[in-house]
Amino acid sequence: MQPIISVQNLSKTYPSGFQALKGINLDIQPGEIFALLGPNGAGKTTLISIICGIVNPGDGRVFADGLDIVTQYREARQRIGLVPQELSVPIFETVWDTLKFSRGLSGKAMDAAYLEQLLRDLSLWDKRHNKIMTLSGGMKRRVLIAKALAHQPRILFLDEPTAGVDVELRRDMWQMIRGLRESGVTIILTTHYIEEAEDMADRIGVINKGELVLVEEKAALMKKLGKKQLTLQLTQPLAEIPPALANFPLALAQNGEQLMYTYDEQNEKVRITDLLRQLGALNIEFRDLNTSQSSLEDIFVSLVEEK
After folding, report:
1. Please, what are the domains in the chain?
2. Distance in angstroms (rounded) separating the CA atoms of residues 219 and 167
3. Distance between the two ends of the chain, CA-based, in angstroms?
4. Each residue's pLDDT tens digit, 58-87
5. Which of 86, 165, 251, 284 supports an S-S bond with 279, CB 3.0-4.6 Å?
């Protein structure tokens, strides 16, 4: 299957000499939700802006739906919708006129029924005749989403789409995004809310200092890099870990009342049994135990710190 986005050895250096991207190679498949994670200044927005035709690329090539974004700019741009971080909307226009203009700008014929349904899905239909300057920040964010979808793009970029929005809008947005994916739209998002990526994305990419550190299916990433932790609530606190347990990666917490064992689920299932057997031999009793697994945020932080 041909990727709907193909980034090939892309680098970008600004006139100031700052190298924002370094040899990025990335393929995104049709119909997936791809989350791009990275700290501030990592290159997320630069990468998205190049693909969307807002920033000129440096070295390398980028294809959107098989179209070169430089030599076939107009056709490629028609395939793409972008919801930027900034609330950049024409404040003196009405919501309806903004959507009509955005659709016409892409060369699409007017489709009032589609635009009406779009506004209804975003709870904007009652505001269609309002000037954008009169809307709240959350409503303006909804207009940005509607504007990006007005020309029915096959690819939708969401750059920090839920930054500063209320919980209700965030919930509505993700429900709508799931619906768009089901209709065949490919979603690429950047977010600081890593739990959203963990909940929504099919694949995760981590970018740091202009380099793509990792691209992995979310489930495989969690399985490969996620650590589990077994916590034992001890009957009697320990002052220190006994020398007989030195071969296990153990730590004491809660003034010695908790014994914590961090392990790789794939490789250390047998060692848990060994640990419990050793505890019994040492007459170390526990009244409760539980396990927890690394979140995507834990994995992201460890990857960035390693890099």
Report:
1. 5-223 (3.40.50.300), 227-295 (3.30.70)
2. 26
3. 32
4. 899 999 999 999 999 999 999 999 988 777
5. 284
